[in-house]
Structures are given as C-alpha cells and as structure tokens.
Design goal:
The chain is of the alpha/beta class and 785 residues long. It is 54% helix and 17% strand.
C-alpha cells in the first residue's frame, strides 16, 4: 500500500453555501479569516470598479444622447456615480475593520452592493434601450457586457454580490434584446451572463481555497514553532488560543476537558473567566490570575506561569506559557499557548514520602513495608511462642492480558485486584504488592491453620471472578504459596524463600491453587538446580539427540515430512522429558544454543534424505526475540545445503504476545529466504486472527486436545476444528492434525478437512536411522511404481 508524501496536503473542501456567505458550516475550518480575505480582495479593486462605472456611464450617455432626454441621462449618471462612490468608500473603509477576521453578516451584506449597482445599471436597457433602434441597442449591449466583465473581475472574491449584480443586469439586457430583436439575441445575452457567473463563482472559490491553504499552513507552522522551538522544554498537555479580545477560539477537546466544559460552549468565552471559575463574579482572583491578566493586557510573552484553576469545584494547579500572535502587517490577533496540569507535581513531596513504603499504583504497602511488617510479626511470634504466616500471591494469566491489551489495562487490573484483596483482610493481616503481579500477605497471628487456609482459598476465589474493564471481560486467577514462621524459617528472608518455593509448586500444578511449604520443596528446588547444571553441559557432552515423527497427507497417507523432536539422555538421570527440561532451558537462557544445535542438526539430516520431504523444527519465542536468529537460520541452510523450502519452522502463539520485540521482523526476514512457517498448537492460547493475516504462515497445526475431544464427540472441539480448517483454507494455508492415534481419528480429521496428520497412528518419534530408512524406502517404492 502506497502512501502520499508528507509534503502533500489534501485540497480543502469548500462548501458553496459557506463560500457565498449563506451560513456557517459546523466543521473545523475557521471561516472568519477566510471571509476577511474575501472582503480584503474585493476592496483591492474597489477603485478600479469605480472607474469602470464612470467610464461605462459616460459611454452609455453618448450612446443614448440622441434618443433620450438629457436631463434624464444626467440624473441617471449622477445616481450611478453616487452609488459607485458609496460602494467604493464602503469597501475601502472595511479594510481596517475586517483585516484579520470577518463575520458572516459582513460578507452577506455585500449582496446589497451588488443589487444596488445592478439596479442603477438596469435603467438604461429597460428605460431607454427598449425605445431605441437595433444599432443603439447593440452598442448599449456591448458597453454593458464590458462592464459586467470588469465587475466580474473586480468582485470575484465576493461571489454573492457579484452573482446578484450579473444576474439582474444580464436579465435586464436580455429583456431589452427580446423586445427589440427577438429571442435569439436575448438567449445569447443570457448565455453570456450564465457563463460569466460560472466563471466568477469558480474564480471566487479558487481564491478561497488558496487562502484556506495559506491559513492552514500558517497555523501549522505556528503550532510547530510553539511546541518544538519556543517551548521544547515544556511537556504540554494541551494548547489554548485567544483572539485579540482575549476570548477563547478553536478550543481543543483536551483543553475543554481540562476546564470541564464543552468544546463548543467554551469558544467565545473570556479566557480569564474560564480560568477564574466561580471567583469571576466576585473578582477575588488569585495572584497568578492577576499576573496572567497583566501579561495578556500588555501583549507580553510568558512561560512557566503557575496559577490555580477551579475545575468543577476542584482546585487544580496549571502551568501555562504563551506568545502573542501578529498578522502579516504586524497587527495583534491574540495569544496561543500551552498548558500543563501540575497539581500532582505540587504534591510530589508527600508522594515521595509515601512512595518509600507504599506502592504508587495500588496504594498498598510495598516490599519494604511488607518486609518490616513480617519482621515485626516474627519477632512477636518468637516472643509469645505463637505463629505467624506469610503468603506470596502470584496472578495467573496476568502477563498475557498485559501483553495483549497493553500496560494501561494491566495497571487498572492490578488496581482492581488490590481493591478486592483489601476487602478480605482484617486487623490481623497486612497486604502489600511486591512488584509486577506479585502480592503478599503477612498474618501476625497464624495459630489457627484452618484460618490461614480459609484466607488463601478466599483470595483465590475472589481474584478468579471476572473483571469488567473498557468493555473487556477479563479472567485471571491466583496461585499462593504459604509459609508459617518460625517453623518454616527463623528469619524473614528464610520465610519468604519458603513461601516462594510453595508458590512455585502451585504454579507448577497449573495455578489456581495454594500450597503450604514442605521440606520436600527444598529438595525439589535442589534437584532443579542440579538439573540446570547438567543441562548446561548436555550439548558439550553429546547427551542430546533428535527423533523424527512422520507427517503424512490426510487423504493418501503419503509422507510429506518429519517433525524434529529433541530428546535428552543423561548418563546418571536417564531419559529426561522435554516437558521438564525445555521450560528449564528457557528460564536458564539456554534455549538459544540448544535451539541452534537442533536447527543445524535437523538441516544436515534432511540433506541425507533421498526424498525431498520437509523437516519441521520447533522454535522458542526466546529465539525469535533475538535478531541474530536470522543469521543462524541462513548459516544452517548454507552449511547443510538444504533448500530453504524444505525447512519449516514451527512457532506458538506466545511469540506474538510480547510487545516491543523484533519477533515479527525476524519471521519476515526468515520467510523472505523461502523458509516455511507453521503455527503450532493454534487455539490453545490467547488466539488472535490479527497475526494470521499479518504473517505468512504456510500451515496451522491443530492441537491434539481438540482431536481427542472431537473423537469423543465433543461439539465444541468439532466446531473448532471446522473453523480452523475453514480459516486456513480462506488464507491459503494447510492444516495439520496432531495426536492422531487411531484409524477412526484419522478418518474423522480427514472428513473435517484437515490436509495433513501426525500422530502415533502413522508413527512414533523415530531414531534418525529409522526415519532415514523410511524416507529412502518411500523413494524406492515411488521409483518402482
């Protein structure tokens, strides 16, 4: 999609009725300076028009002298000169009054000038011309036509007055010709008049368009100058502008919202009255407002002016700055400035003091105050031989909401969570936010373990209820780890560590539950630490290998490719499940080197296959968030010699949920190489159709949970598979059904429209030698056939 250069601007749309001065359009265009330009343009040729009238009157006098009474012609000439002089002086006098702005009535009143001028010039053709012969009438027509043309040139900027003049005079001439010569010349006169009126209207419109463009450019230049040059150090919230009488003009919605008024109602109000609010009538102004009044009166530029403002009964503090504005002739036309609400900055000292121990987002105690409260609770428990408890709360699914809907929604959601938590605590508990989506509760008296468990269950149930935010219905949950002191820790640090281990167990169990600390958790944490150390050495010790699971065409069963699956066999711990070590590799930042090894190994193996089937490699989101991954893919293809179209990368929806990363750009560059892209486990996460339309996927993999559900007759699973297949077909993508384990499941997904299948029914993940043998045997069978 091409875009227009920024230097090009759309031509302003000029309403014909507004151009004629018949009404004020309800758009954002400021017609006051445009109408002033119309009047000023008309006044520039006022003397020329007056001269044309005098010359025309003299010529008409000479033409009609042989047939008309001289006293009548002299009287008409005097009236014509008087009307022309009056119009000329009126035009010239309006220059100072309408130099920069003009009202609707100013333009509308000019129609009287056109009518008056047309009336006096209609006398010769109607009073004298109808009694003359054809030669006199022809001469009169020529003179009046020249006068009409001159008037159209001189008065084009005022279309309403000009059209009135041309229409009335042209009709008078046509009547004269109709009486003397018949309809032919009368029609010609009317045609000439119509063409002259059209030309006048088009020229008048062109003048207005040019002036509107000049005004728009001037406004933009002043705004840019104001924001970027004169006030570049001031982070403004809104703009404000006044006219020469210090009345607000073109109020922006942000300014109107700041003063609590309607944008249309605030226009035309005195600027000081808006700021003073209720004190305007009493005259009891603050010192800042008096200073502002002096600056406005003296037409002086100012900045960093601090003043109180009453907004709907609430006192706010604003900091404003402005510069006077002048037209091209140096005339003062008002002020334009910027303003910021600095109420919070004035209270910054109190906030800083509060922020030392309270969370600024939720208002709850922060980590420092929670640690202090826990230390006091443990000291009291140790002194009286009682128990205290510490709960660590982590929100489930919050990160996905924060990434997909944005931090503002996430922050407001945290505020709602804190409100619900506050409703659950008593004087015995202190609740706080540790940071991010982690909260904590300190129970000073935890002698009753049932009470502790009941509170944990209440927190989970309360936080799991839906939240309504900005027309979004949001669902999150909570996982809790509970530690009891001094049994689970003799110090605050030890108790927090124990609660953290219990929380980890709750998260590992799928969330939405709570666990109390058990000594076994320390053992599991130690096992995890040992496993991480072993994982760091696994590649170097050649402990990892790849298995390959076949992917076949759903209709023919023909082999279309393999999915490379990572396996880890430790000499001491044996076979370790990918479900266990892959998340550990991601947490320990080991997924990048492991993923690169998988990619290179799979590409090298695929080059040994005689049959040109594809190899699919799973890619972690952490790999795609690194721009260097593009070079890794290119290097793997180059060193192995594998054609790019035989490599397929499988990514999950979580890749697209993290904002501010380069994952999309990385994928686009890889796709440009010719590598294919598959979306794995579609529908199991926070699915969005947006990335399907923006990213060039070649296939969508349907998760095995939907296949199993459909095989059991679950209507929702069947509907989801059908919807995914239809979506993929509309986007030109293939669909692969995962986890097909029986012939019935194969026939079912085939009937539902899936193009490829993968699962134990066609083959388990195979060692490299068996996979290679299957490929090569298939090639020999195809050749024999």
């Amino acid at each position: 999609m091409s875009t227009q250069p920024s230097s090009q601007f759309a031509q302003p749309r000029i309403d014909a009725r507004a151009l004629l001065g018949l009404y004020d359009p309800a758009d954002t265009t400021d017609w006051a300076p445009i109408r002033a330009a119309q009047l000023n343009a008309g006044s520039q040729l006022a003397v020329f028009l007056f001269g044309a009238n005098l010359v025309g009157a003299a010529l008409v006098f000479l033409i009609l002298a042989p047939i008309a009474p001289l006293w009548a012609l002299a009287s008409w000439g005097a009236v014509t000169a008087a009307v022309g002089a009056a119009i000329t002086f009126r035009r010239l006098a309006s220059r100072g009054r309408t130099g920069n702005t003009a009202t609707l009535s100013d333009v509308r009143d000019t129609v009287l000038e056109g009518i008056a001028l047309a009336a006096v010039w209609s006398v010769p053709p109607l009073a004298f011309g109808v009694k003359a012969d054809a030669n006199v009438a022809l001469g009169l027509w020529i003179v009046l036509s020249v006068l009409m043309t001159a008037s159209a040139v001189a008065m084009a900027a005022l279309p309403l007055a000009t059209l009135s003049f041309l229409g009335i005079l042209g009709t008078s001439i046509a009547v004269m010709l109709l009486i003397l010569t018949g309809p032919l010349l009368a029609a010609a006169a009317l045609l000439f008049t119509v063409l002259l009126m059209l030309g006048c209207f088009v020229r008048g419109k062109s003048l207005v368009v040019i002036r509107a463009g000049e005004i728009a450019l001037a406004e933009r230049d002043e705004t840019v100058s104001l924001l970027l040059r004169e006030f570049e150090e001031n982070s403004a919230d809104w703009l404000w502008e006044t006219d020469a009488q210090r009345r607000i003009v073109r109020a922006s919605p942000r300014f109107a919202h700041s003063v609590g008024l309607d944008p249309l109602a605030v226009n035309g109000m005195p600027f000081l009255q808006v700021l003073a609010g209720p004190t305007w009538e009493a005259g009891n102004f603050a010192a800042g407002l008096r200073t502002l009044a002096d600056k406005l009166k003296g037409r002086e530029a100012f900045r960093d002016l601090l003043l109180p403002v009453q907004v709907q009964g609430v006192e706010r503090w604003w900091e404003i700055a402005a510069s006077p504005r002048f037209d091209e002739r140096g005339g003062f036309i008002g002020f334009r400035g910027v303003g910021s609400d600095v109420t919070e900055q004035r209270a910054s000292a109190d906030k800083i003091n509060k922020m030392a121990r309270f969370d600024t987002l939720t208002g709850l105690p922060n980590r420092l105050l929670i640690n202090e409260a826990l230390a006091r609770a443990m000291a009291e428990a140790d002194k009286w031989g009682s128990r205290c408890a510490f709960m660590m709360i982590d929100l489930d699914r919050f990160k996905a909401i924060n990434d997909t809907l944005g931090h503002p929604i996430g922050d407001r959601l945290l505020g709602r969570v804190s409100e619900r938590l506050n409703q659950l605590i008593t004087d015995n508990e202190t609740i706080g936010r540790l940071g991010g989506d982690e909260f904590a509760v300190v129970m000073r008296d935890a002698s009753d373990s049932a009470r502790v468990e009941k509170l944990a269950q209440s927190i989970i149930a309360t936080l799991s209820k839906p939240y309504e935010l900005d027309q979004h219905t949001l669902y999150i949950g909570a996982s809790i780890g509970v530690a009891t002191g001094p049994r689970d820790g003799r110090t605050a640090e030890m108790l927090i560590r124990s609660a953290d281990l219990a929380l980890y167990r709750s998260k590992d169990a799928g969330g939405g539950t709570f666990h109390c600390y058990e000594p076994q958790l320390h053992v599991q944490a130690e096992e995890r630490r040992v496993l991480e150390m072993a994982l760091r050495k696994a590649l170097h010790n050649d402990e990892m290998h790849l298995n390959y699971q076949p992917v076949v065409a759903a209709d023919t069963g023909e082999l279309t490719g393999f999915e490379a699956l990572l396996r880890w066999t430790h000499p001491e711990f044996g076979n370790i499940s990918p479900v266990k070590f892959v998340p550990l590799a991601e947490d320990a930042r080991l997924i990048a080197p492991i993923g690169e090894w998988v990619l290179r190994t799979a590409c090298e193996e695929a080059t040994r296959w005689n049959h040109p089937v594809r190899v699919a490699v799973n890619v972690s989101p952490e790999q795609l968030h690194n721009p260097a991954f593009v070079a890794v893919v290119a290097s793997a293809l180059a060193q192995s010699g594998l054609p790019a179209d035989r490599l397929e990368l499988e990514v999950t929806e979580s890749v697209f949920m993290k904002e501010g990363t380069c994952a999309i750009q990385v994928l686009e560059k890889i796709l440009d190489m010719g590598v294919r892209l598959s979306l794995d486990d579609f529908g199991t996460g926070y699915s969005s159709l947006g990335y399907l339309s923006r990213t060039r996927f070649s296939s969508i993999k349907i998760d095995r949970s939907f296949v199993q559900g459909a095989s059991q007759g679950v209507p929702e699973a069947i509907a989801i598979i059908r919807a995914v297949v239809a979506l993929a077909q509309s986007l030109g993508m293939a669909t692969t059904a995962e986890g097909v384990e029986t012939e019935a499941e194969h026939l079912m997904v085939q009937d539902l429209g899936c193009s490829k299948v993968q699962g134990y029914y066609f083959g388990r993940p195979l060692p490299v030698e068996e996979a290679r043998a299957i490929v090569n045997r298939g090639q020999r069978d195809a050749a024999a056939a």
